[in-house]
Amino acid sequence: MGTDIRMERKDAVVELVIDRPTKKNALTAEMYAMMAEVLRDADGDPAVRAILIRGTRDTFCAGNDIEDFIKAPPNAEDHPVFRFMHELSHATKPVVAAVAGSAIGIGTTMLLHCDLVYVADNARFSTPFTGLGLCPENASSYLLPLVAGYQRAAELLLLGEPFGADKALQCGFVTQVVPQQEVVTAARAAAAKLAALPAKSVRITKALIKRPHLARIEEHIRAEADAFRPMLGEPAAREAFAAFKERRKPDFSKIA
Questions:
Q1: C or N: which end of the chain has fewer Cβ atoms within 10 Å?
Q2: Each residue of 204-249: pLDDT tens digit?
Q3: Which residues contact 193 (CB under 8 A, 6 or more apart)?
């Protein structure tokens, strides 16, 4: 396991830690591969009863590392980002998240696949896909309207503007908002409670909750990916990425 992604074991709970603070925990293809491995191994280990995903003290995940993303875009079905999405969306054991600071792009959309989500009062979320000339991913175009309602989901996914912990709670994908210094403790306490329950009961209950949605989640991940991949080479995305590298505001005025 690399230093940017760590796996920590606490009794029957595995913690997947995103630890790249110099880049605000932005994810590279290598990091996605490591996260997929942690999730797969934890879900397949009979001694593991719960999984906790967390970032560092001040940042959860700033989404994709744009430079790495440009060099190694997810243009194939076996790209590590899709392996990560598959492992998270198919995890049979309960997944708890602890979120402090920024959660951008997939840093937000991965939370829609977690069972319990504890966020710090300083958390800031964003789904900035349209501003990058792209479309949503990780089945967020299905899951966000499901939990938040159409208009709220449309606001978040179409405008892509940052929003805070209280709005995330109102949108239905957050379990509880707590002070920043308590968020990891709260998530660990919840994971420990889950781990102390009968494992089969927890596993079957989660499967029954997800059963009506799993096929649609898979369908939306594929549909989003089929739209996302060609959009990477279109003028809007090229302009957005060029503007990022040049540290300027993108100009979409002449782009359809």
A1: C
A2: 999 999 999 999 999 999 999 999 999 999 999 999 999 988 999 9
A3: none
Q: Which two tokens stand for residue 138?
A: 């990780």
* Chain center to CA of 228: 16
Model confidence pLDDT, tens digit, residues 153-171: 999 999 999 999 999 999 9
Name the pTM for this structure: 0.96
Amino acid at 58: D
CB 126 within 8 A of CB 161: yes
What angle (nearest 5°) sits at the alpha carbon of residue 200, between those of residues 196 and 206?
A: 90
The CATH architecture that domain 5-196 belongs to is Alpha-Beta Complex (3.90)
